[in-house]
Fold Ribosome-binding ATPase YchF.
Amino acid sequence: GMKVGIVGLPNVGKSTVFNSLTKAGAAEAQNYPFTTIDPNLGVAAVPDERLDALARVMESRKVVPATVDFVDIAGLVRGASRGEGLGNQFLGNIRECEAIAHVVRCFEDENVIHVDGKVDPVGDIETINTELLLADLSTTERRLERVGRAAKSGDAKLKAEAAELAGLVEHLSDGNPARTYPRSEVMAEALGTLITAKPTLYVANVDEESVADGNRYSAEVEKLAAREGAEAVRLSARLEAEIAELPEEESREYLEMLGVESTGFEGFIRAAYKLLGLITFFTAGEKESRAWTVREGSTARSAAGRIHSDMERGFIAAEVAHWEGLVDAGSWAKAREAAKARLEGRDYVVSDGDTMIVRFNV
Ligand code: GDP
């Protein structure tokens, strides 16, 4: 699945975020056949009102949301890039993720020790980012050495890559993430292995009282994210953990008292989903309504392959209706009558919110 790594200094609330995300996700995705393989790997359901609406009109017996996998990457400390703590192992875990959620402490609490003695979100972010940059720098220097040696054969492509790698070493040494280095074809492979090339979402973990309006710490995080061209969301991990223990009615009252509609957790999952360049299409019927995840730009045939490899292999056509058209019509038959459903071929590019019936040869 799509994997998002949760990083941050110790004691900033990573585990609390991870637990509340995946606990809520597990509750929502009761029907989803996943097992927790690893205590640090969890599955979160993507909240989606469109899916709920489809399931209602179809009177679906089962509703299956899209999911995002989260990995709790604990133990990233100052010196990790030099192998301190369990440094190298953790950096390896981050490399396997497609995106990074960087949790930042934006709450004061004298009972929760801060590793550097004070609440300082920008300083914390710099500490973590420095380790990630140093890890990427050493990866890039090693690659430059190897490619530079091979380029002595006179191969033009290798020479071009060596020149670009030297530029990237300089870029990283100046403290810039690989994300902001110009992408070219010769660099695609090199950039694909770098941590700071991954899309990053900053998560400002605030106290209960600051969910509605934020505080001075979360404002600093939002400013930094804007500067870096990264995304930022605000949530309260502890509030989320408390809410998860309450009955529905009480949790709603509690949120109302705090002046918010949700704990911020839904916004977080949606932002992570968007960050990965993913879109959703649906299948909807009496038996089941389900949300499927594909990359933006996917064709109908490859989308069919998400459902079943037989559907991709034997693909004939897809019957497509926008979710809203189908909900308005009330059924596939009525959507056809109202010309709200149409037939599309294998190369049709799927849009976010499409509902599909795949016709295929077995
Ligand atoms: P991690 O080391 O980054 O995984 O941090 P944890 O999730 O274990 O949290 C560290 C401590 O901070 C725990 O005692 C949490 O209960 C507490 N904590 C987490 N979020 C908040 C919050 O928003 N406010 C307060 N006051 N404490 C929090």
